[in-house]
From TrEMBL:
It comes from Lapidilactobacillus achengensis. This is L-ribulose-5-phosphate 4-epimerase. InterPro entries: Aldolase_class_II_sugar_metab (IPR050197), Aldolase_II/adducin_N (IPR001303), Aldolase_II/adducin_N_sf (IPR036409). It comes from the Bacteria. SUPFAM superfamilies: AraD/HMP-PK domain-like. Signal peptide: none annotated.
Length: 234
């Protein structure tokens, strides 16, 4: 079942070590077939060196395993909540990439410090609300998804304008139209977080965000009807 999607999800997972985004097994990628209402996700705790497309697990939008011989990622309930809440999502990534995690642990939104950030994220990447003790002690991974959705709703952020979040005290989730695009966004987030850290240290005071007109220019040269970056594909 969903053999092509399993291959796609396997290949996207293998991009995480390639792009230096994971330590040990601390990350996962999934992608969804919206027509079938099923998504494919990495199994939990399996070394990237031994992973195969056949190890991928198929899950429905209630979070039930439909096919697979291995346990799905421990973060499957978070992915399930995000796919249900944000219908535009085709793929989701979670990592513990250190620069993004540093902002999550500090509880500081990742500011749009320059065009590297603005090319991909239309504004700051938010830190989520912290999970309460009750949320952590009950359905933790499901509540992690809910707190992400709540944060975007409270702050009026559209998920495809800023396809990333920093879960307070935990780390980044990114997403996109496909699994590969979600991995791309995870790498941009990590690079932008490292640059932002150095920018903040060097500048040493006050706001390091670019002005709105530069954010607009760089985001919309790559997104929407008037985008002109790159090559025409047809
Ligand atoms: O957050 C964590 C661990 O703290 C997990 O996301 C990470 O280790 C990946 O787990 P899985 O191997 O996908 O179950």
């Amino acid at each position: 079942m969903l053999e092509n999607l399993k291959k796609e999800v396997y290949e996207a997972n293998m991009l995480l070590p390639k792009y230096d985004l994971v330590t040990f097994t601390w990350g996962n990628v999934s992608a969804i077939d919206r027509d079938k209402g099923l998504f494919v996700i990495k199994p939990s705790g399996v070394d990237y060196e031994t992973l195969t497309p056949d190890d991928m697990v198929v899950v429905d939008l209630d979070g039930n395993v439909v096919e697979g011989k291995l346990n799905p990622s421990s973060d499957t309930p978070t992915h399930t909540v995000l796919y249900n809440a944000f219908p535009e999502l085709g793929g989701i990534v979670h990592t513990h990439s250190p620069w993004a995690v540093s902002f999550a642990q500090a509880g500081i939104d990742l500011p749009a410090t320059g065009t590297t950030h603005a090319d991909t994220f239309y504004g700051p990447v938010p830190v989520s609300d912290a999970l309460t003790q009750a949320e952590i002690e009950s359905d933790y991974e499901e509540n992690t998804g809910k707190v992400i959705v709540r944060t975007f709703a409270e702050r009026g952020i559209k998920p495809m304008d800023v396809p990333a979040v920093l879960v307070q005290d935990h780390g980044p989730f990114t997403w996109g139209a496909t699994a590969e695009k979600a991995v791309y966004n995870a790498k941009v987030l990590e690079v932008a977080a490292e640059m932002a850290y150095h920018t903040m240290m060097l500048q040493g005071h006050g706001d390091v965000s670019v002005p709105q007109y530069l954010l607009d220019k760089h985001y919309y040269r790559k997104h929407g009807a008037n985008a002109y970056y790159g090559q025409k594909t047809n």
